[in-house]
């Protein structure tokens, strides 16, 4: 299949939904502008697409869950806004544009992140009116997203990332950071899509293992690109991990061993969904795409 065409099609669906969602009369205007600024700054929409692809792999209709999947991008964007703040990573660029706090100030950037996070769960809950989604499945999916976005997932990983700066690298801490800060939201997006399709237990187990593997592979590639990539390609300042003495795969294992580990994880991700039908082909191709990406 043409994975680039698939990713483009799904991205356009998510972008169109999000554009229509934030109406001009949303007030205060500056808050809305700040939220939309970061939300529309670009991005691959990978997490919503993974949610849609997992739903399709479990024989669901992705149109039924477009609002739910799109809400995941709000969670991701909130995390980027807060990550870039002076109190955290203190970055000037995100997706090739000035970071939110550089344009709207720190206070408004914090509130924009808060607004996006809470609005995401409001969007999810609105799916209760969708007769094609079982309420029990929706509750499981919302619970999943709350778990992976909060202290048990992304926030916990971000906290450990901050605590580990300027410390001696160790593999156990590195694994915790990558699994929680990045992997949790990726895996959770996939599991939520599967839940909403009323997947079987074996299907969920396979989707979960797939998500764990590509989540870690994604972050390892990110670590490598921070060293080998360019600011133009990534849309953010490169080399920041080394300057801030962050705990990364290359810092512990070196570039080549890290690249080999990412390749092994992608191979394993594809293997664990071998029993899925052709509808899971996008998931297989997305896993391969991870290794080739430059941003």
CATH topology: the name is Farnesyl Diphosphate Synthase
- In DSSP terms, counting alpha (H) and pi (I) runs of 4 or more, how many helices? 15
Order of helices and strands: HHHHEEHHHHHHHHHHH
CATH structural class = Mainly Alpha
Helicity range: over 70%
Query: Which residues form runs of ≥5 with pLDDT under 50?
Result: none
Overall outline: globular
| Strand residue percentage | under 5%
Q: What number of structural domains do the residues give?
A: 1
Structural class by secondary-structure content: mainly alpha
Structure overview:
- The chain has 295 residues and is an all-alpha fold.
- It has a single domain, classed as Orthogonal Bundle (Farnesyl Diphosphate Synthase), CATH 1.10.600.10.
- 70% of the residues lie in helices and 1% in strands.
- It contains 15 helices and 2 strands.
- The model has no long low-confidence stretch (mean pLDDT 92).
